[in-house]
Amino acid sequence: AQSVTQLDSQVPVFEEAPVELRCNYSSSVSVYLFWYVQYPNQGLQLLLKYLSGSTLVESINGFEAEFNKSQTSFHLRKPSVHISDTAEYFCAVSGYQKVTFGTGTKLQVIP
Amino acid sequence: EAGVAQSPRYKIIEKRQSVAFWCNPISGHATLYWYQQILGQGPKLLIQFQNNGVVDDSQLPKDRFSAERLKGVDSTLKIQPAKLEDSAVYLCASSHPSGRYNEQFFGPGTRLTVL
Q1: Residue A44 and residue B43: Cβ atoms within 8 Å?
Q2: B42, A104: Cβ pair inside 8 Å?
Q3: Nearest CA among A26, A42, A45 for reference residue A34
Q4: How many angstroms separate the CA of residue A61 from the nearest CA in chain B?
Q5: DSSP sequence for A24-72
Q6: Which of A1, B47, B101, B106 could potentially form a cystine with A44 if both were Cys, beta carbons 3.0 to 4.6 Å apart?
Q7: pLDDT along chain A (111 residues), means of 10
Q8: DSSP of chain B, one letter per residue?
Q9: Which chain B residue has its CA at the smallest distance from A6's CA?
């Protein structure tokens, strides 16, 4: 069995401030980890993924996430947020052919 | 490359009525998924197809929900009869299986409101 916990349902942050969205997971098998972003009235888009290799992964728009096996975490960070980052972010874990999503964190960027 | 298409985008029905959603996956993607996303929750997998066979439907309420994927391409998800708690966004996703890792591509979803 596998599960994902996103402790923060909403995170308000001022524009140009740093942000961290937390994600913890549990699984009985080795996993792949993902962050998806969902803008209003749209489907989910893959933001970044950890499959293997370097534990620090980056997206093209400045987000990064670090896989920490000992803490079973995959927190998402950005050093300086923009208004356009306002969206809902979902952490997901993939075991063998099965993906489980967290409940999501709404990032609200305040001008 | 065209993305995953879904229709309709929005649907409002009364409880006990029937409704159907349609999904056209990305060309060449053998795996198709239907998710239910209730407001404030993450997507929950309802059913997963590999070509036109069902891989996982363990969380599909089979007394009222049904899905089919004829010819291994398009898929239809039906609810009959609908209940108030079925109000949600129904997301379709597809992937091209390649080993253990299957990146899923999502459609825009169908927002269902049951009154």
Answers
A1: yes
A2: yes
A3: A45
A4: 19
A5: EEEESS--EEEEEEE-TTS-EEEEEEE-SS-SEEE-TTS-EEEEETTTT
A6: B106
A7: 91 97 89 91 89 87 93 96 96 82 95 95
A8: ----EEE-SEEEE-TT--EEEEEE--TT--EEEEEEE-TTS--EEEEEEETTEEEE-TTS-TTTEEEE-GGGS-EEEEESS--GGG-EEEEEEEE---TT----EE---EEEEE-
A9: B42
Nearest chain B Cα distance for residue A102, angstroms: 5
Contact criterion met (CB < 8 Å) for B103 and A51:
no
B44 lies within 8 A of chain A by CB: yes
Residue A97: Cβ within 10 Å count: 16
What pLDDT is recorded for position A29? 79
Q: Mean of the per-residue pLDDT values for chain B? A: 92
Residue A22 has what pLDDT?
97
How many CB atoms are located within 10 Å of the residue B99 CB? 6
CA distance B26 to chain A (A): 14
CA distance A92 to A20: 16
